[in-house]
TrEMBL record:
Cofactor: NAD(+)
Name recorded for this polypeptide: dTDP-glucose 4,6-dehydratase
Family: Belongs to the NAD(P)-dependent epimerase/dehydratase family. dTDP-glucose dehydratase subfamily.
NAD(P)-binding domain location: 5-307
NCBIfam families the record matches: dTDP_gluc_dehyt (TIGR01181)
Length: 340
């Protein structure tokens, strides 16, 4: 049996990744280590909470004693580090938690993995470490310089460099993925696409930063999880793999598309003051992972948005509990049941 440590598994991408692994690898056993910050929601994993191949541990990846104990007890074969503070606006308000989790926490995991001889360490990063592109610039490649522009992206860039150092200095088999913007089920309501959908459902104004012409490359979370699975199994140690869908859209175009799919008026669009250091454009060149690992995105963007709108309509209790904070009560109740 393969033993996999997934950090941040109660979050958006992490919970989808755990669900993917349980489905695709019946002989794998997962330990999900999550601090359960505001973005960690155990309801994201309610459908697999009784699965004997998935154990939840509440804890901080920056807690060296806890991490070391877990590595000794479980004897992991693989590590997938998805734990991160990830909201740019929050990083602008207070960068400190981003340094603690994204930089220190990653180093704690790397050191534990080094001492235990892990077969593969997957660092899940972001295209934001590359900085911003101009409209006519070619997409980022794995060779693009790292030029982060927000405290969040700077903390992820620092973590990536620490991973590289552990590979070069200690020979730890680390692979790094840098993905474009994700969308899909279980994404926190504060994020861009969920905000559009939920505000439109309530006929509330939809805030759009600046002129709305900021461009992002969007990928469905299920496509991302398939890529992570491939990199974890077959990715070459020391390499970086960009994961993108060649699916660039302006923020304003996405708002208009969702409003059209929901039959809502464009008058809901409200332009607001741009945030500091707002990157103008991200675009990822995914040809390396496509050629090396035979990966291709499968979810059409418009179809994915339609399905996601339906998902949010059908999962109103989930997002209402997230917005009200009640989801934390569920987490506390489940955690008490595990430790009693």
């Amino acid at each position: 049996m393969v033993k996999l440590l997934v950090t941040g598994g109660a979050g958006f991408i992490g919970s989808n990744f755990i669900r993917h692994i349980l489905k695709e690898h019946p002989d794998w056993y997962i330990v999900n280590l999550d601090k359960l910050t505001y973005a960690g929601n155990l309801e994201n994993l309610k459908d697999v909470e009784d699965n004997p191949r998935c154990r939840f541990v509440r804890g901080d990846i920056a807690d060296r004693e806890l991490v070391d104990r877990l590595f000794r007890e479980e004897k992991f074969d693989l590590v997938a580090n998805l734990a991160a503070e990830s909201h740019v606006d929050r990083s602008i308000l207070d960068p400190a938690p981003f340094i603690e989790t994204n930089v220190k926490g990653t180093q704690v995991l790397l050191e534990a993995a080094r001492q235990r001889g892990i077969a593969k360490f997957l660092q899940v990063s972001t295209d934001e470490v590359y900085g911003s592109l101009q409209p006519d610039d070619p997409p980022f490649t794995e060779e693009s310089p790292i030029r982060p522009n927000s405290p969040y992206s700077a903390s992820k860039a620092a973590a990536d460099l620490m991973c590289r150092a552990y590979f070069v200095t200690y020979g730890l088999p680390v692979v790094i993925t840098r993905c474009s913007n994700n969308y899909g089920p279980y994404q926190h309501p504060e994020k861009f696409i969920p905000t559009i959908i939920l505000n439109a459902l309530a006929d509330k104004p939809i805030p759009v930063y600046g002129d709305g012409q900021n461009v992002r490359d969007w990928i469905h979370v299920e496509d991302h999880c398939r890529a992570l699975d491939l990199v974890l199994q077959k990715g070459q140690a020391g390499e970086v793999y960009n994961i993108g869908a060649n699916n660039e859209h302006t923020n304003l175009d996405i708002v208009k598309t969702i409003l059209r799919l929901m039959n809502k008026p464009a008058s809901l669009i409200t332009f607001v003051k741009d945030r500091p250091g707002h990157d103008r454009r991200y675009a990822i060149e995914p040809s390396k992972i496509e050629a090396a690992l035979s990966w291709q995105p499968q979810v059409d963007f418009t179809s994915g948005l339609k399905d996601l709108i339906t998902w949010y309509i059908e999962h109103r209790p989930w997002w209402e509990r997230v917005k009200s904070g009640e989801y934390r009560e569920y987490a506390e109740k489940w955690y008490r049941s595990l430790t009693s």
